[in-house]
Amino acid sequence: MSLLPPRKRKGQPTTTTSGGNDGNLPPSLPVIDDRIIRNKKPDYELSKIVGLAVPTIYKHEALGTFPPRVKITGKSSGWRWSQVKQWIEGKRDWRAAQ
C-alpha cells in the first residue's frame, strides 16, 4: 500500500512492478522507491502523510519512536519514505534500529 504516487524523474523510463522485463531491470528485482520526504513550508508533506503536527514529529524522533532524519545538504534534511512507510504500518511498535 503506497500513500504517494510513483515518483516521476526526467529522462528515466518508467518501471513496473508487474515483473515484466522492459530491458532495464531483471524480472526478479522489485522496484524500490526510497525517496526523501521533506517537512517544510509551504506544504509540510510528511505531516500530511503521517497525520502528526511538526513539533510532535520532532518529539517522537527524539524519543526514538519515529524514523531519524537523513541529511541532504548542510542545512536541509528529510526522512526516507521506506522508513516512514514502515512506521505507518507498525505505528506504536516501531523503534529505531540500535
Automatic annotation (TrEMBL):
Biased composition annotated in UniProt, kind: Basic residues: 1-11
One Pfam family in the UniProt entry: Phage_AlpA
Top-level taxon of the source organism: Bacteria
Region feature Disordered, mapped onto this chain: 1-29
Protein name, entry field: Prophage CP4-57 regulatory
Species classification: Bacteria, Pseudomonadati, Pseudomonadota, Gammaproteobacteria, Thiotrichales
